[in-house]
Design brief:
CATH topology of the largest domain in chain B: DNA polymerase, domain 1
Largest sheet of chain A: 5 strands, antiparallel
Largest sheet of chain B: 5 strands, mixed
Strand content of chain B: 15-25%
Strand order of the largest sheet of chain A: 4-5-10-6-7
CATH architecture of the largest domain in chain A: 2-Layer Sandwich
CATH superfamily of the largest domain in chain B: [2Fe-2S]-binding domain
Oligomer: heterodimer
Shape of chain B: globular
Number of helices of chain B: 6
Distance between the termini of chain A: 49 Å
CATH class of the largest domain in chain A: Alpha Beta
Strand order of the largest sheet of chain B: 2-1-5-3-4
CATH class of the largest domain in chain B: Mainly Alpha
Number of strands of chain A: 15
Number of domains of chain A: 3
Radius of gyration of chain A: 19 Å
Strand content of chain A: 25-35%
Number of helices of chain A: 11
Order of helices and strands of chain B: EEHEEEHHHHH
Shape of chain A: globular
């Protein structure tokens, strides 16, 4: 076990996005970026070997203009790199139009962590258990990355490569997340299972359904804690598309989930338990999404 | 940089400090300033013993906060709730309801209560419990703490007919 004392490092405090990108380009793999720090601080306290530790820690504290949550009915929701979970919750439009994300944020960790942790940090951590990550995966969106050569946008579907690894290159700064505008007939929901609320999820699920009456026109289903990264349930999605949401369809959808996930045993649950409850939790999320219609 | 000159405004007092960049706000409060009312619990942001209020009453874990990034910030610790050594209505409510056993979680609990009541003067039991998530008590079983928060809400000084500055003081 570690001493839970922060090791030695050099602190970098850029004053702008271009300066931050310059520092990233200069130090590449030897630098860790910190916004809220709720993950980075713990990771550094628990590092098992010097190889896991950065030489430089770059705090975004003095970079202005990244703490926004902006809603536009035509363009969607833009979340800046420094916007905290608490700031997301404070936006009435998030509760109204992005209910899955709002519910994920509401039950996210604790007050203190919500006041500090950022939404983008949750994506960049690339943990399979990230609640906001799961909700965002179902809603869909793009992550904007600023590098020395300019800005590029990565679809959330292509963002997580493996456990803890994202499509962000070492010289790129994640500057914002853009969620699509709300569509008429679009419904979403998020559900999670934990021992206590503030604990990490043992299983989480988010759904986004495009409905025409009781018929599902399109679906995005995301599940967490069942693979090395958050997982899209693409096979199960095909069972929903074009179908009326009858009890039989929901039953077949629930039955399909355990075949599509690859959970492990860990201290929060067993693989077997996760398989057993995964379909039920997804079914309940679909029912909640439609009930909210 | 390995060290940084910073100014913190702690409980209304200006502190000019030179801090090592790898020191947490908790370490600076306890070890550099001797303000031991803020407790070290888990060091990983799970127990809430190290809670302090930032700026306008936002609760944060000081064990996950680098002091060097806090330059210019206003910070309230549990000692900052009292007025010249006299406990405030929240602290009095915790005493009256015997919501303290070992006392280690209490500074965090009273600060979380202050930040809750600043935005919600009449919280339900469910709202109190949701707000206190992130502050672990191993002694009381929480019942007495929830009672103390209810009492603190009842005995909260009225903010009526005061200017913005006075209201901030009440909130703290």
């Amino acid at each position: 076990m570690s001493s839970r004392i922060l090791p030695d490092f050099e602190l970098l405090l850029p004053q702008s996005v271009p300066e931050a990108v310059e520092l990233l380009a200069a130090h590449r793999d030897r630098i860790t970026v910190m916004a809220g720090g709720t993950d980075v601080m713990v990771a550094m306290k628990f590092a098992q070997s010097p190889a896991q530790l950065p030489d430089y820690l770059m705090s975004l504290e003095h970079v202005p203009g990244l703490a926004y949550v902006l809603f536009d009915p035509d363009k969607g929701l833009r979340i800046g790199a420094k916007a905290t979970i608490a700031e997301l919750l404070a936006q009435a439009e998030v509760k109204q139009h992005y209910r899955a994300l709002w519910n994920a944020a509401r039950t996210f960790a604790t007050v203190q962590v919500r006041n500090t942790a950022t939404v983008l940090g949750n994506l960049l951590r690339a943990s399979p258990a990230g609640d906001c990550s799961c909700a965002i995966y179902a809603i869909g969106g793009t992550v904007a990355l600023q590098g020395p050569a300019g800005r590029r946008e990565v679809d959330i579907d292509d963002f997580w490569l493996s456990y803890g690894v994202t499509a962000r290159r070492p010289d790129e700064l994640a500057v914002e997340l853009i969620l699509p505008p709300p569509a008429a007939g679009s419904r979403c929901a998020f559900k999670r299972m934990t021992r206590t609320n503030e604990d990490l999820a043992k299983l989480n699920v988010a759904v986004r359904l495009e409905m025409a009456g009781n018929t599902c026109v399109d679906a995005r289903l995301a599940m967490g804690c069942v693979a090395p990264t958050p997982l899209r349930l693409t096979k199960t999605e095909t069972l929903l598309k074009g179908r009326e949401l009858t009890a039989e369809v929901l039953q077949s959808v629930a039955a399909s989930v355990p075949w599509e996930i690859d959970p492990i045993d860990d201290k929060r649950s067993t693989a077997e338990y996760r398989r057993q409850v995964s379909g039920v939790l997804l079914k309940r999320a679909i029912q909640e999404a439609c009930g909210a219609a | 940089m390995k060290n940084r000159d910073i100014t913190l405004h702690i409980n209304g007092e200006e502190c000019r400090l030179n801090v090592a960049v790898n020191r947490t706000l908790l370490e600076v409060l306890r070890d550099q300033l001797g303000m031991t009312e803020t407790k070290y619990g888990c060091g990983t942001g799970e127990c809430g013993a190290c809670t302090v209020l930032l700026e306008d009453g936002k609760a944060i874990n000081s064990c996950l906060t680098l002091a060097a990034t806090m330059d210019g910030k206003r910070i309230t610790t549990a000692a900052g709730l009292s007025d010249f050594g006299r406990v405030n209505h929240i602290q009095q409510a915790f005493i009256d309801e015997a919501a303290i056993q070992c006392g280690y979680c209490t500074p965090g609990m009273v600060l979380k209560t202050a930040s809750l009541l600043a935005t919600n003067r009449d919280p339900s039991d469910e709202e109190i419990r949701h707000a206190l998530e992130g502050n672990i008590c191993r002694c009381t079983g929480y019942e007495k703490i929830v009672k103390a928060v209810r009492k603190a809400a009842r005995t909260m000084p009225a903010p009526a007919a005061c200017g913005a500055e006075t209201c901030t003081e009440v909130a703290q």
